[in-house]
User: Fold this.
Amino acid sequence: MPTSPPDAMLRLPFIALANLLLLLRTLLGAPFRLFAASHRPAYVRFRLAGDPPYREQRKPRFSLGGGSRPEPADVTSLERFGESLRLLAKDPKVKGILLEVEELGLPGAKRDAVVALLAEFRAAGKRVVSWAVMVDTDTYPVLCAADEVLLAPMGRLELVGYSAESTALGEGLSRIGIRPQFIRRGDYKTAPELFTHPAVSDIQRRTVESFLDERYATLVDAVSVARRKTPDEVKALIDQGPYSGPRAKAMGLVDALVDEADLPLHLGLVKVEEGKAPEDVEDTELEALDTYLETVPFPPVKWRRMKRKPRLALVPVSGIIVPGKGNAGGRLASTDAVVKALRAAGRDKRSKAVLLYVNSPGGAAIASEQILEAVQRVARKKPVIAYMDRVCASAGYMVALGAKELWSAPHAVVGSIGVFAGKFDTSGLMNLLGIHKTLITRGANAGLLSFSRGFTDGERAALEADIEEMYQSFLGHVAKARGRTKEEIHALAEGRVYSGLRAKDAGLVDKIGGFEEACRYALSLAKVAPGDFELKTYGAAERRMSVLRLLMGAAQPQTYSLCSVSWNLAGQERETLASLADETGWGSWLRELVREVRGEGDHER
Assistant:
């Protein structure tokens, strides 16, 4: 929505004054930066660790509690990393970057995005040197995206391929007098098998193997291209892992072994005088981007703009979908929080479109249908695109169906269209412990979910009918959203789990792509011209998980449609306690000015 004339007039003095201050700050600092230009670093250091977000997170204006500040070299987002590389690529005095890689926890889509940014930087004629101490199988392709791969002499390369462990507790539970009683719709809905089966089923084994095959093939392809080896050579090297630093170098998996302190010397940034040993050279540190900017006379300035950037609303659905209240994000996605976030995104007139980011293995059927209805309501007002880069299965997939299009990363976990429900009959364990319960009911099925006995024939028949009804409803939602018949969807359903690529072939998702591509496509549906845009997140993650709430929730009768493949979900939960006071007069004026200078002026007032 274009800035209205009254709003523009209101913003004009703040923007003008903010830009004037930015100009003064740039001009006053220029002589000092000009003086330092002769010391401009030839290599700029970046540290890639953990799981940085796709886009930079805005800092709250007021907050209680601080949290640790990132180190100057830390990659704080893929967006900022890309901006930095593009800036450095234009500087003829910069030879390249040193990328330190440490304990990455990136999903495949983010790894691909990082590799693409490095390839773009190298295509501009710049050099990328990667360095690490410990490297695992998932991290190695990122390290290989460099011109030169370095490892610390004491470092290790844990290149061993992929493995997955499936567990079956059925026999163990029976030994202690617990009988799991679950009813499922679909042979591929294997989640209950964890409790019911004495051994892993063939279906579960084949499902896991299909994902391992895809990931393994992608790994072999990435390493063979980067290290100029044949696929067979790479497979043989994987089979011989893990590697110490010297063995990794001998096998051609890394180019050199270099201590961190010796990196400047290795990069040619330090000259060793004749007659001096390398260890006698004075230590020199590789500089981060902040130091580089101090040597650029006129660094890029983010001027405040009269016309606000287009806004895209981001609504995350992260974790197990549960009914009730609580904040969206983290390990639980509660109905109340997600629906409120969707309504807020729909009401935001500046948000031209909505990106629904789904990272959920499933959850309660009733909760997912409530969220689906909320997604559909927003989609009637503005374009909604669903994006998945980790897990979008079962109830998570149902939620995504309300979007206009479904986008997936190549190796995300998608599908698992099915339903199951059940309980644990603990009567055998109670008898062993000498605990006796008497169940008194009024109503044939009143004791349906009692743990003190198993299902009666009538209860089982009633639950089976309920599960079948829910399954047919699920098929109906998918069929309507995907433009297929229920029979066609049933052939793809019954709990089957797909990778993003296979889900695309099956017609369960529309496009394979990255996060930024999905964002820009959503805005294009809203007729927004290509260019920079602002991403605003609706729904904040919880800082702590309440054990009491989990236990209370587990005690309630729910029918779940959980993903049948166990997956390691990254669930970092945050909560910021903020307080804003009503301000008038000079106080309000100064606050607005500070926001403009700090780049926060395009928030809704």
Summary: The longest helix spans residues 5-36. Residues 61-66, 542-560, 563-605 have pLDDT under 50 and may be disordered. The radius of gyration is 28 Å. The first strand starts at residue 43 and ends at 50.
